[in-house]
Design a protein that fits this description.
globular, 5 helices, 20% helix, 2 domains, 6-stranded antiparallel β-sheet, 230 residues, alpha/beta, Rossmann fold, 6-stranded parallel β-sheet, 12 strands, Elongation Factor Tu (Ef-tu), domain 3
């Protein structure tokens, strides 16, 4: 377990924060998409969170980044608001097999995120960009309200420069929304995939249940559909 210091803690959305932990002299290596256990104080419960930074960012910048949903439970998210620069967070990891492959044969990649499920997919996207992985990279991102899209300015900048394709869809109700509405269904997914697209999904349980079935109906092979549970 690594005791890491908080480098920064800023609000990402009304219900989440971006937490950066300085790795300092510690050697923390991980693969894009993996997670780590976080805990504040030995007596409190530890909680797993996906790492939102890419390994290349950590190597360059010297920090791990996490997108933490704030809540009122006994979990880490209940205490993240209290953390300030220099606070200590206990980190154990990395954990998880939901990773971007080292040398994918595919040349078309679709990342499907719901809410804070963007965290490991941002890591994968950033890694694919930093490592110059060839191919088309597209993100389909859903949230309940317009203010719940974390990393949106960064993602829009990547889309404007042509580095990624970006599709947004709103699952709740809001006025003046000019993008798609509703869950990630056949109409949204069909233009984004072919039978050789490698797909990564992270989001609420309903999305993880429904979307793989839709992708298979569109001709995507099961082995090209990756989730944290697979």
């Amino acid at each position: 377990m690594f005791p890491l210091k908080v480098a920064s803690n800023r609000r990402a959305t009304p219900t989440s924060r971006v937490l950066r932990l300085a790795v300092g002299s510690h050697s923390f290596t991980y693969r894009a998409g993996q997670a780590a256990w976080l805990r504040v104080g030995a007596e409190r419960e530890q909680t797993p969170y996906s790492i939102a930074s890419s390994p290349e960012e950590t190597s360059r910048q010297g920090w791990l980044e996490f997108l933490v949903k704030t809540d009122q439970s006994s979990r880490f998210g209940a205490h993240v608001d209290e953390l300030h620069r220099g606070s200590t967070v206990l980190v154990h990891g990395p954990i998880g097999a939901f990773v971007f492959p080292d040398a994918p044969i595919e040349r078309r990649f679709l990342f499907i995120a719901g809410g804070t499920g963007i965290a490991p997919l941002r890591s994968m996207l950033r890694h694919a960009i930093d490592a110059n992985v060839p191919g088309v990279k597209t993100l389909l991102y859903s949230a309940r309200t317009p203010v719940e899209f974390a990393y949106l300015p960064e993602l829009r900048a990547l889309a404007r420069e042509g580095t990624i394709g970006l599709a947004l869809t709103l699952t709740g109700i809001a006025d003046r929304w000019r993008h798609s509405r509703g869950r990630a269904g056949t109409e949204l997914l069909a233009p984004l995939v072919d039978n050789e697209t490698l797909c990564f999904l992270c989001g609420p349980p309903s999305m993880i249940t429904e979307v793989p079935e839709i992708l298979r109906s569109l001709g995507v092979a099961p082995e090209r559909i990756r989730t944290e549970a697979s």
